[in-house]
Amino acid sequence: MKFKKNVVLAVMLPAGMVLAQNSLAYDVVPAGQPVVTGEPSRVGAPWNHRSTFNIPGTNTDVAFGGYVKLDAFYDFDYDQGNATDPLALLNPANRTDGRTNFTAYESRLNFRTQTRTDYGTVSTYLEGHFLPDGKFNLRHAYGEYGPFLAGQSWTNFMHFLGSPRSLKLGGPIGYATGRPSQLRYTHSAGPNTFAVSLEDPSYALSPVNGGADIENPLPTLTARYQYGRNFGISALVKELATNEATSGVDESTTGYGVAAQLALPLGGATTFKANATVGSGLGSYLSYVPDGVAGARTPDAYIDNNGSLESVDSQAFGVSLEHNWNGDWSSAVGTSRFSQDLPDDIAGFQAGLDTVQYSFVNLIWDVNQRLSTGIEYQHSDIERVNGDSEDASRIQASVQFQF
């Protein structure tokens, strides 16, 4: 197979607006800190920093930011979409003998406010991007007051400290993710952070054996502890249920899980990172697709041959190394593995996912604090419940302009 390399040069001329105002605006966050207030949320690279301007005559400061990103993909074996999806290997229709794809769909816009009141600061954050269909789709929409966060943002079950820097959106496979609507309380004391949340309880039910209509009597409960930027552990518990009124199936079971991440410096230039997530009923947290799609690939639960609702046990582990060659160049290499225990005595699951292994290596150049570019090799390997296996390789090159 011949691989033809295409070089794309993108030049962007930004336009700015200057607002003359006597009142002093203040920075959203100190330089070098994550952009989003609600831990562990962040937008863009960790070093990114945006300043605010003041709305005349008010105590409200606003910040507008985001990035423009061009991704160029070459798929050797399977088309894995506009944001690398290793589970695309489950669909034979995605086979290819070589395909190039350019997209700017990951480009992102966000808007932030901070208002000073007599009773503290009220903050809001709104963000969207253009995945998966080129339309502007909501990622975050939340407000914060003191230790409370209400709205849609990252699940309190997930962590960022053990996630490697990668060109792939969402990072390696098997790292807990999701942006549910929620109510969260966070308490910090020195390097220690503890957070609890009540989150939207939707879940992914397999359509095998006829499926059923899902029902959510109780919210998902999560708790997370984090020590600085080195270690974090979280847990969740949720009820999975079906709706007898619409589907004739009245069943319930319990989902639960524990996730942990580690970031261990190895000298001044290298960091070892690790992730582990285990539990039952976690499929929708470990797949980057809506619940309706996840139900056919990584379900939280299924209806067994006796008509009972059963949660799906799953395990995920990942390790990576990050190395800074100098102040501008860095690399990451890592591998992760996700496995789920689908029943092999139900015919509909024979072609379903048993395990997926994802590995990558990259080289990234931070040209300056607003421009980065890089190249990354990605390899995915899946095994089905019936023992069949597939593997695929992809090369991704990206150019990202922060603003």
TrEMBL record:
InterPro entries reported in the protein's UniProt record: Porin_alphabac
Answer yes or no on keyword Metal-binding.
no
Looking up SUPFAM superfamilies in the UniProt record yields:
Porins
Signal peptide range in chain numbering: 1-20
- Keywords, ordered alphabetically: Ion transport, Membrane, Porin, Signal, Transmembrane, Transport
Pfam families, per this entry?
Answer: Porin_2
Entry similarity comment: Belongs to the alphaproteobacteria porin family.
What is the name listed in the Swiss-Prot or TrEMBL entry for this protein? Answer: DcaP family trimeric outer membrane transporter
